[in-house]
Known about the structure:
By secondary structure, this protein is α+β, with helices and mostly antiparallel strands. The chain is 36% helix and 17% strand.
Amino acid sequence: xxxxxxxxxxxxxxxxxxxxxxxxxxxxxxxxxxxxxxxxxxxxxxxxxxxxxxxxxxxxxxxxxxxxxxxxxxxxxxxxxxxxxxxxxxxxxxxxxxxxxxxxxxxxxxxxxxxxxxxxxxxxxxxxxxxxxxxxxxxxxxxxxxxxxxxxxxxxxxxxxxxxxxxxxxxxxxxxxxxxxxxxxxxxxxxxxxxxxxxxxxxxxxxxxxxxxxxxxxxxxxxxxxxxxxxxxxxxxxxxxxxxxxxxxxxxxxxxxxxxxxxxxxxxxxxxxxxxxxxxxxxxxxxxxxxxxxxxxxxxxx
Length: 302
């Protein structure tokens, strides 16, 4: 199907949906949300029992002629060569959603780094997801998204995938050119706004990008507590304090705030608002506990 054919299909879809009453569309949306919530609860219950919510088998189960997305949990016997069996029956958005759900059953939000500001600007897709000792990353450049016309591999629009276990690469970025399926193309159309009445969100699979879009820096700061171990910090706070013209800031006042911070666990950046005659600027950056995006770098020419 050509891009022109797809555009015509989306126009036709919009024409059909536009004839459905808004009340009915809201009912459909509410029903879809309830079904997704139910599915997520069932997913978590099965996970606690060590079972796959899709095939019903134990998560440690591997049989090469019964492919399932839970193979991405690296059961014994799984190897890189079996990965095409997974993406032959799924696509980018199904794989991504499954891994996002996994990550958020362990620690919500921070195990999914999909931050736009951290993404390589040359990439359409670049994110990393962690769960326990596993790490999965997705990458898609503009050339990947369009397909490499004059190359032997990757002529179709595709993405790249990396999987690590205990820091060891199981599937490398360059191993496969994974084609986007029809569902992927439809979701991309929704994200672009080509489908008038639909909006795409990850809901229970939300990561860092959704988090920073939905919470203001003030609210974020208000909810912070100090951590005894800097390596466990999700955010770093840098606060600049400047006395108003013609005034000074007492060193004793600063010492009192440090003492209060040590006793209460409240960050200095929250307490400094008690200072009088001071202009305060606080910068929030990501800490070491936030998952880092595993970038994909071009191969070096020999």
